[in-house]
């Protein structure tokens, strides 16, 4: 038997890793996973003229799963507001199914 | 043209990697991908009093895709029962779409 | 508020990384993320007798998100045709939700 849940994925420059994990810990998520990689993305003021494409910088991809979709969206929006207004980085949510809802 | 399939994601301590891959190979999946990372999660007896949060241990994230959703759930449940009763780790399923169903 | 988008995931041998990124850049995607890992999959002619299972070779997992689902499928099919006819590798699409549609 499977139960719906929401996964939040945050992709950001490594220098933001500690700030992201702090916010995730404060959100009530029971865990997270971090993987290192490289990426290309938009850098600079969101929507502003200062935005440039930065190629292949070091990134972290941080994911966590929450049972409560509304709570997951709330945390994603908080991360987005706090971290990504003047920094590159993206956040997306995915619907997943979990086996053991007591773990989340 | 795309075809529905189910992705199973297993996040576990590295010491469980070989056991997880053995079970995936036995399940009939045609492949898997492993990525190393770090994570925080619940550790100890599932739901028990011995459970503590362990921060930032080394983890593997192992993923495989199966065309048959029921089979994917069955493999996920088997992995969960065999590996995660007294160990930290999570499993979740996602619906994906594949291009070449003969590959899976 | 969240907005639907499509994530494309490409898992391939590392030697294909540059060719994949070139195609993604040409597709109009605003960014991508690359993570290194290991994998097992089918190798050789697609569906042909020469296909063998290759265990634990070095892979890259490359992901990008597009707002336009039809465009994402088109890019995925182009990647599949150009890169995976005689090479191992898989591509799958997932529906995700994004917070800031102007970033994609």
Q: Short description, anyone?
A:
Chain A is an alpha+beta fold and 104 residues long.
Give a quick set of tags describing it.
alpha+beta, Alpha-Beta Plaits, four-stranded antiparallel sheet, 4 strands, 25% helix
Structural class of chain A: alpha+beta
Ends apart, CA distance between termini of chain A: 15 Å
The number of distinct β-strands of chain A equals 4
CATH class of chain A: Alpha Beta
Tell me the overall shape of chain A. Answer: globular
Estimate the mean pLDDT confidence of chain A: 86
CATH topology type of chain A = Alpha-Beta Plaits
**Number of spatially distinct domains of chain A:** 1
Low-confidence stretches of chain A: 44-50
Oligomer: homotrimer
| DSSP helix fraction of chain A | 25-40%
Q: How many helix segments of chain A?
A: 2
* Named CATH architecture of chain A: 2-Layer Sandwich
Radius of gyration of chain A: 14 Å
Strand order of the largest sheet of chain A: 2-3-1-4
Helix-strand sequence of chain A = EHEEHE
Secondary structure layout:
3 copies of one chain form a homotrimer.
Chain A: E1 3-13, H1 17-27, E2 32-43, E3 52-66, H2 69-83, E4 90-98
Helix pairs in contact in A: 1-2
Q: Can you describe what's shown?
A:
The structure is a homotrimer of 104-residue chains. The first copy, chain A, has a single domain (3-97), classed as 2-Layer Sandwich (Alpha-Beta Plaits). Chain A is built from two helices and four strands; from the N terminus they run E-H-E-E-H-E. Chain A has helices at residues 17-27, 69-83, and strands at 3-13, 32-43, 52-66, 90-98. In chain A, helix 1 (17-27) packs antiparallel against helix 2 (69-83). The radius of gyration of chain A is 14 Å and the shape is globular. The relative contact order of chain A is 0.36. Chain A binds chain C through residues 9, 11, 35-42, 46-47, 53, 56, 59, 61, 73, 76-77, 80, 84, 90-95, and chain C through 2, 5, 7, 21, 25, 30-36, 65, 94-100, 102-104.
């Amino acid at each position: 038997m499977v139960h719906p849940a929401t996964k939040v994925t945050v992709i950001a420059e490594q220098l933001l890793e500690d700030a992201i994990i702090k916010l995730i810990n404060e959100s009530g998520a029971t865990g997270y996973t971090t993987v290192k990689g490289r990426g290309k993305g938009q850098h600079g003021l969101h929507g502003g003229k200062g935005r440039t494409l930065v190629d292949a910088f070091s990134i972290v991809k941080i994911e966590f799963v929450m049972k409560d979709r509304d709570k997951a969206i709330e945390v994603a929006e908080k991360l987005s507001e706090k971290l990504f207004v003047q920094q590159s980085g993206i956040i997306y949510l995915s619907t997943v199914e979990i086996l053991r809802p007591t773990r989340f």
